Amino acid sequence: MNILLEAFAKSFELVFTLNEDLFEILLLSLKVSGISLLLSCLIGLPLGTFLAIKSFWGKDAFLVLFNTMMGLPPVVVGLIVYLLVSRSGPFGWLGILYTPTAMIIAQMILITPIIVSLTSQIIEEISQEYKSLFASLVVPSHKAIIAYLFDARYSILTVVLAGFGRAISEVGAVIIVGGNIDHLTRVMTTTIVLETSKGNLSLALALGIILLSIALTTNFILIRLKIRAKRRMYV
Amino acid sequence: MYKSNKKNLIKLTPIEVIDLSVSLGKDLILDKISCSIKNNSITAVIGPNGAGKSIFLQTINGLTNIDYGKITFNKIYNNDEIRNKQAMVFQTPTLLRRNVKSNMDFVSNVKNKNGKLIIKNILKRVGLEGYDDKPARLLSGGEKQRLSLARALFIEPSVLLLDEPTANLDPFSLKLIEEIILEESKKGATIILTTHDMAQAKRLASDIIFFNKGKILEQTDANAFFRNPLTKEAKKYINGEILL
Description:
heterodimer, A: mainly alpha, MetI-like fold, 79% helix, 0% strand, B: alpha/beta, Rossmann fold, six-stranded mixed beta sheet, four-stranded antiparallel beta sheet, 9 helices, 34% helix, 25% strand
């Protein structure tokens, strides 16, 4: 019990004393997760929409593949990215091992399948709902796609935040490709691992509380938005 | 008062349906039907459930595949230009997950037609004035159907297809929709509606098409049909008997 109280006190102290190291780690965590989320959305939203509305040979195989990839073990992804970008790997010449770039790539591989699969399910449902109306109105396909994405915005926001949750809480892949280097690739989760291994449990727990607070805040915003949307029957 | 723009009414009539067959999966829904829809008529398509009335309307609107036969609009096959001058109101209206105004704006955007004032006038006409910001899917059944009709009116259709537009609606919505149907007809639109309401068919229709089991058993003018139906099925249906 004491250690929990100590951890809470420590987390408040770290936040309210504007601890430089903490903010550096926090900002890097948000930057890496934010960029990987943004890039995953740029790939995943159009790809998920395409899979939802187009019929082509092998479509089911793609859907199964992306659904399966939603459960990719982060350490395996980390290991694969490590092999690809390490000096002897095919992309070793890029020199990005142990940099935030490698961490972003690893996180993108983890998040993109989530965005693709869930977007595909959401857009498929809404496109079926609007199918007859849009056919009757002779809606051009680009305007139909914009309408699907706009009208499914609340559901898609859930997907985006699910992706963010996966990214910000991820440790296995980023520790392998980032290396947890102080002032360079150290993020919240990798710091927690490090501090735990050093026996500094109160600091580890304090960081955990801050991480949890970020997750709680995003989920709170998400739930408020969903409640508002449900009241208006927009979902 | 809403003013019509008759210049926009492309002549799509007569609509000729020749030996039309339509299947859904393995089921034959329309079985070699033929009929002709006159210019500026109000045609009521009647018949028991499952007779093929809704599919008939959807086929005219180009929403189903034709197995056999053809439909021509003033001797031209259906195409996007023709379909852009048709409007369909479905029995169960599909409304976008937006407010009333945005539902109208969507049609305006799709048809590349700027019409803030037109939208305002149409919403007033269908009794939805002041509903702009109301989420469309929170409207009552009658209001939803009137919004669906408002979208159709925005198109200024030459052919207006209405699939049971007043089924289960309140008297206010029913009266308003019937008045709008008659007004659109006066403006020159050709209207085809399906209905189970014989009184409504008598009030509105100039022509009747009677369907049973995917076939057209009668097509005639409304007065003649109700005065002297030619088939025993039509007689039974008018008398409210169950057709098996």
